[in-house]
Structure formats: C-alpha cells, structure tokens
C-alpha cells in the first residue's frame, strides 16, 4: 500500500512539472510553414523537456509566466533553429554573465518583457542573425558596453518602459545598421547635450544633465564605427519621457523620417534642432507644453506629410512652407479665428483636426484651397456657421461639428460638399432644421443629430438621403415622428437610435413594430437602468390623458399647485378649529364660574 501511494505521488509530481505548451502551425513569409509554440510554467525542474516539445521546423517560441534561475547557454542548445523567441513575465536570471543565447545562430527576433532582465556585455553574444531586439519593462537603467558588439546588423532596437535617464547609457555606436530606435516610456530628461555621432579614434563620451549638474561620462572602450553610424536610422521614438529640451541631438540623423516626442515636457521648438532633417515625413509632438514653434522649424521639409501638435498651448504657427502636408492635428490648443489663416497654403491636406480650440466663426471661403480635404473636425469650438463656411470642399467625406453650441444651420451650408458621407452635429443646441439643408447629400451614410433640442423632424428633411445607413436622433425632445414617411424615404437605413426622447410608450410601440417589419435595427438601453416606463429597453412616457387603471397620477404641471392648495386648506381648517376650540374653552370656563357663583349665592341665603 505504501509503495502504491509513493508511485502515485511520483506520477502526480511529474505531471505538475510538465510545462504547459500550445503548438500551432502557421505560414511565415521568410520560412514558409512552421510551428509557433507558447510554453507556460517552465522551471529548472522541467526545462529539459523543452527539446522534446520544440522540433526542427519550429519558427517561434514564447516562454511565459515561468521561473528560470541560474541557467546557462545549454538552455537553448537543442532549439537552435527557432527564428523568434519571446520571454514574457518570467523570473529570468543567468548564471554569472554567461552568453545564454550564443547557440541561437538563426534567431532574428528576440523579445524580453517584464522579467527584471539585465543586459551584460556578453548577453547577446552569438546572435549574428538578430534583426530585432525588444527589452520592455525590465527596470533597465543602463546597458553594458559591448552588449551590442556581436549584433552589428541589428535593425530594430526597442528599450521601452524602463528606467533609462541618459542615452549615453546605451552603447548605440556598436550597431552599424540601426533603422528604428524606440526609447518610449523611460526617464530621459533632456537631449540638449547629446549627439547621435560616433568617433572611431576615441572612447564614447556622453554628456547629459543630472540634477541640474553637467555630467561628463566616459563609458569605456566600445566597438567604434565611423560618424556615419546613424545615417540609416529612419525612426526614433522618445514618447513619454521627461524631455524638456532637444538641442542639437538630432543633427546627425540625416535619414530620419519618423520622429516621436509625444507626452514630454517641451515648451519651445527651436529651428536649429530640426534644420538638418530635410527627409522627415512624420512629426509627433502631441501632449507637451508647447507655446512657441519658431518660424523656420518646418522650413525645407518637402516630404513632411503628417504633423501632430494636439494637446499643447499653441496660438500661432507658420505653415507656409509645408505644402506637402496631408495630415494636421492641432486639437486642444489655443487657436482663434485669425489663426486659421495659417492653413491657407495647405493644398495637399486630406485630414484636418482643429477641435477644442477657441474658434468662434468660420468665415466664407476660409477653406477655399482645401480641394483635397477628406476629413474635417472642428468639434468643441463655438462656431457660428454661414452658407459659405465650407465652400469649395469638393472632396470632403467626413465633417464633425459636434459640441459647438450651434443653434441654427444655414440652408445652404452643405451645398458645395456633395460627396459627404458622414456628418456629426451632436451635442449642440439645435431645435429645428431648414427643410432643404440635407437635400443634396445623396451620398450621406451617417447622420448624427443626437443630444440637441430638436422637437420635430419633418420627413421632407430626409427626402433625398437614399444612401443613409445610420441615423442618430437620441437625447432630443421629440414627442412624435412621421416615422412611416421618414423611413420610406430612407431605403438604405439599417440602424436608428431614438432613445432618451419624450416619446409616449404607446407611440414608441408603434415605431418599434414598424421598423422591425423593415428589418431596421435600433439602439436600446436595458430596462434596469430606468425607473420609469420603457418599451423594449427604450424609455418612454405614459399618456397623460389615459393613465393605467389603479395608478392615476396627477398632472405634473398641476401637482405643485395642488399641493399648495391642500396645504392652504389645511392651514385654514386648523386656524378655524383652533378658534373654535379656544372659544369652547372660554365658554366652558364662563359657565363653570357662573355655576360656582350661583352655588355660593344660594349657600349664603340659606
């Protein structure tokens, strides 16, 4: 019996130590079909089983939620054919500073994430084929010199969500052909005293600000290349650091096309920081504190097509030379009416976002040169519209006018934007529309009129909207709809939203029954969200003149006056009763006193 129990314990222990692995066959462009394997719960006790799981035509291996301590290069000795390795959310410690990946000669992509991983000088030795390296969320504050020395052909380096404070803490000069550098979510405070350049005749010198003190550090011997080392870099990402200044750090990145500085602490963008970047295509400075952009910053940028400056404090900017721009985001800044003149030369612009500024009016012909504009977002301003506000926007497909406190629409405001497919007028204060305002928009597919103060929607308003697919009139003051005539004019309608209005329950039932027969969907809200009546989840109001039996309710407009009258009557009755009671009391006292006097009189005479 004891022997049987011991055998059961051994079997259970072996099952517990078996790694949890899933294997899937997939097609990969470089190698054709191969297996992708994900293994969880690997440990020192079961790591030897890995070679039985990963076979010769394996493409990728993911090691997840594992505990691997004190291992060496023999770990990957029998899986040398894999092309992609990911180590995620694991405890991953090496034996000394061994070259743990040296046998993965064919590995092209290595990702180590959330593992408290530290990169020593020998960590990546032997990865001659590696093209992409990601070190994310490992609390790295530096990488030892020599770490990248044997991966000279690395093209993509991502050291994100770590604790880097200085770029000099990365031996970047060891990488000859780097194309993409991503340092997002670190603690870099400034680039002012750093330069992306290397000198093969001397050691790497890094200069940076550390607690307001200039720090000159010599990092030791490196694998030096020429000063042309960084000319192949096309993309750099500094998003969500703490950068306050850029300086001349980018001067040697002459091939740079994509530059990201989102979520930093920049206040001034100086022209000399960007002067050499004449091949730049995309610039992102979203969510900084930018007040000033010097006039020459965007000068001689013939390939710049995308510029994101949203979430800053910009009131003016010189865009006269950026004629190639196709995407411009200036949302959540301090632009006013006069600022729109800066846009006059942007003839190639396809998408313009100027929402949440201080624009009060769009003057006639303001966008007359934007013949290529496809999307325009001016939401969150205080617009007053005119008939010519959007004149000459012949290519416009998507127009967002929400949150503008618009009260009325001019009859011909859309007359030159006949290609429009989507209009958003939600969250304004419109109560009615000119009958012909949408009449020529035969290509319109989505119309959002929700959360205004609309009291009626004549069916003629939708007469020519033959391609309208989605209609949203939720959150208004509608008490009735010519729903049959309206829907008959909308042959392409597939979804309508009319919740949060003032429709009676009886009327709402008729609408729902009608649109169900037309196979049209409608937006509902679950019944438990409402204390009042609803029909299939859409709130409604009971008819005042036909209340349900046993539940007769006073008219809401009369309830207050009725309550006041009741209280007045009660007060009067109370006063009368008080007077009567007091009079009765006095009378009783008088009678009693009289009787007492008579008794005394009779007693004396007797």
TrEMBL record:
InterPro entries: Leu-rich_rpt, Leu-rich_rpt_typical-subtyp, LRR_dom_sf, SLRP. Gene3D superfamilies: Ribonuclease Inhibitor (3.80.10.10). Residues 539-562 are annotated as: Disordered. Residues 1-15 form the signal peptide. The chain crosses the membrane at residues 567-585. Keywords: Leucine-rich repeat, Membrane, Repeat, Signal, Transmembrane, Transmembrane helix. Residues 547-558 have a biased composition (Basic and acidic residues). PANTHER family: AGAP008170-PA, INSULIN-LIKE GROWTH FACTOR-BINDING PROTEIN COMPLEX ACID LABILE SUBUNIT. This is Uncharacterized protein. It comes from Brassicogethes aeneus.
């Amino acid at each position: 019996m004891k022997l049987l129990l011991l055998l059961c314990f051994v079997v259970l222990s072996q099952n517990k130590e078996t790694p949890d692995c899933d294997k899937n066959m997939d097609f990969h462009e470089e190698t054709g079909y191969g297996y992708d394997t994900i293994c969880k719960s690997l440990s020192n006790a079961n790591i030897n089983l890995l070679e039985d799981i990963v076979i010769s035509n394996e493409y990728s291996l993911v090691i997840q939620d594992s505990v691997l301590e004190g291992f060496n290069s023999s770990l990957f000795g029998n899986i040398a054919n894999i092309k992609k390795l990911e180590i995620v959310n694991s405890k991953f410690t090496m034996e000394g500073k061994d070259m743990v990946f040296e046998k993965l000669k064919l590995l092209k992509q290595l990702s180590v994430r959330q593992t408290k991983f530290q990169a020593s000088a020998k960590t990546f030795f032997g990865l001659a084929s590696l093209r992409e390296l990601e070190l994310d969320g490992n609390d790295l504050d530096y990488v030892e010199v020599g770490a990248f020395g044997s991966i000279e052909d690395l093209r993509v380096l991502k050291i994100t969500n770590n604790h880097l404070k200085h770029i000099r803490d990365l031996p970047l000069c060891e990488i000859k052909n780097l194309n993409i550098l991503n340092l997002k979510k670190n603690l870099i405070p400034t680039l002012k005293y750093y330069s992306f350049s290397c000198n093969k005749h001397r050691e790497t010198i890094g200069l940076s600000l550390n607690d307001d003190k200039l720090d000159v550090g010599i990092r030791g011997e490196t694998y030096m290349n020429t000063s042309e080392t960084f000319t192949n870099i096309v993309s750099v990402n500094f998003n969500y650091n703490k950068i306050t200044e850029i300086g001349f750090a980018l001067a040697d990145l002459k091939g740079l096309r994509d530059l990201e500085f989102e979520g930093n602490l920049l206040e001034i963008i100086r022209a000399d920081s960007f002067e050499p970047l004449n091949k730049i295509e995309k610039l992102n400075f979203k969510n900084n504190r930018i007040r000033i952009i010097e006039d020459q910053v965007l000068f001689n940028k013939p390939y710049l097509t995308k510029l994101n400056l949203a979430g800053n404090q910009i009131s003016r900017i010189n865009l006269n030379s950026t004629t190639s721009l196709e995407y411009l985001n200036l949302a959540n800044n301090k632009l006013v009416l006069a600022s729109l003149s800066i846009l006059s030369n942007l003839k190639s612009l396809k998408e313009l976002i100027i929402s949440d500024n201080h624009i009060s009016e769009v003057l006639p012909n303001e966008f007359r040169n934007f013949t290529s504009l496809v999307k325009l977002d001016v939401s969150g301003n205080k617009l007053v519209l005119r008939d010519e506000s959007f004149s000459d926007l012949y290519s416009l497909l998507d127009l967002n006018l929400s949150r503008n406190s618009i009260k009325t629409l001019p009859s011909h405001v859309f007359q030159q934007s006949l290609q429009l497919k989507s209009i958003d007028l939600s969250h304004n204060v419109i109560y009615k529309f000119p009958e012909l305002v949408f009449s020529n928009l035969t290509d319109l597919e989505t119309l959002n009129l929700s959360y205004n103060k609309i009291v009626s929607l004549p069916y003629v308003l939708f007469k020519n909207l033959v391609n309208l697919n989605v209609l949203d009139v939720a959150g208004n003051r509608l008490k009735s709809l010519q729903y049959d005539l309206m829907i008959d004019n909308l042959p392409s309608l597939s979804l309508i939203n009319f919740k949060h209005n003032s429709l009676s329950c009886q009327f709402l039932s008729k609408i729902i029954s009608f649109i169900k027969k037309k196979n049209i969907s409608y937006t509902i809200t679950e019944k438990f969200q409402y204390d009042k009546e609803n029909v299939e989840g859409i709130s409604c109001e009971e008819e005042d003149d036909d209340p349900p039996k046993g539940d007769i309710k006073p008219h809401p407009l009369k309830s207050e006056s009725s309550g006041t009258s009741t209280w007045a009557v009660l007060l009067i009755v109370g006063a009368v009763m008080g007077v009567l009671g007091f009079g009765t009391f006095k009378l009783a006292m008088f009678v009693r006193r009289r009787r007492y006097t008579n008794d005394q009189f009779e007693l004396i005479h007797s």
